[in-house]
Structure formats: C-alpha cells, structure tokens
C-alpha cells in the first residue's frame, strides 16, 4: 500500500500572484513590495507544513520567480522553473512528469501554494485517506476547498496520470474526470486564500509564522 507521495507546488511570479489580495498586507495601500512579501509568505507557510510531513517523500516547487527560487532554495526546497507552456495546470502536469521520471511508481500530488493555515497533521491525514481509496482501486482523489467549488489538493495513484484540472469550478471538473472526493475535516487544507475574506478565515484558523509576521502591524503605526 502507498505510504508516501511526491508533491508539486507551483508558485506564480510574486508580482502577478494573488491580485485580489493586493492591499491586504499594508492596510489597503497596495504597495507592490508588501504584496510580493505576502504572496511569498503564503507559499513559505504552505511549504513548511509540507516539509514537516512524514508522508511526503519529495517536494518539487515550480516557479520562475528568482525570489521564490532563492528563498525556498535557502531552506532546502527543490525549485525548478516553469516549462514552456504557461498556466497552473501545465505547471502541475510538468512537475508530476519530472517526479515520475525519477520514480515511475510514485504516487504524485498537486497542492495549492496558498494554504497559510495548513497543518501538517491535516495533510498527513488526507494522504492516509487517499491511500485507503487507492487500495480500493480509486485512481485519483481530490480535496475541495472550503466553498466546495475549487480544489486545493489532487493526488494520483502510482501509474495513474495526475490530469490536473485546476481553476474556477475545478471540484466539479475533477469529479467529472473520475477523481473521488476526500472527506475529512481539514480546515487548513481546505482554506486557500484568494481574497481578504479568505485571509481573515485563515487567520481565525491560525496562520503560519511567515504570513503572521508579514501581517503583523509595523511598530511605526
């Protein structure tokens, strides 16, 4: 039975990432540097939760942003640039192909990079739930977001293509493509952050240290 998985986490260029969150890091001012720090912090906290997992064997971050590559590389994360085809799904598919080149028998997963309240225990539990479904002959499984419409986590069994279908309404697309939903109370895994309201909900769950630090009021105020 599958015991560990290899995960792909794409991180967009920081300036282009999370446009609906602009201003959230600086009381609505919308400074580009403050916004980039927040986007990076979301990724840092997501990655930190993944790296603490005993069920994730290998983590591959896909990003062509030099700051992301330098910052995550400095803490030992493997970062490779985006491939020739733009977009989130291409990044997931390309990353999964790289992981399978290394180990064709790997279970591979796609995780969103904006899960600042993610707890390692939630991720471990979701992977354990996936392993049970794979043992029952499921090929792909997914975790929907808090609203139930999007997807935060997609996992493919050994020998099965990842076939990522992320984007608006992706939960239904993943289900229609044959992926089975994961059922579990994992609020941090389900709370991706696209808007200020999402960020407030993540705060209520408890943010990771990087995002907390970026959002802390500066001593000058």
Automatic annotation (TrEMBL):
Pathway: Cofactor biosynthesis; coenzyme F420 biosynthesis. The keyword Nucleotidyltransferase applies. GO terms for molecular function: phospholactate guanylyltransferase activity. It catalyses: phosphoenolpyruvate + GTP + H(+) = enolpyruvoyl-2-diphospho-5'-guanosine + diphosphate. The keyword Ribosomal protein does not apply. Its EC number is 2.7.7.105. InterPro entries: CofC, Nucleotide-diphossugar_trans. Phosphoenolpyruvate binds at residues 151, 167, 170. Keywords: GTP-binding, Nucleotide-binding, Nucleotidyltransferase, Transferase. Belongs to the CofC family. HAMAP family: CofC. Guanylyltransferase that catalyzes the activation of phosphoenolpyruvate (PEP) as enolpyruvoyl-2-diphospho-5'-guanosine, via the condensation of PEP with GTP. It is involved in the biosynthesis of coenzyme F420, a hydride carrier cofactor. This is Phosphoenolpyruvate guanylyltransferase. The lineage of its organism: Bacteria, Bacillati, Actinomycetota, Actinomycetes, Pseudonocardiales.
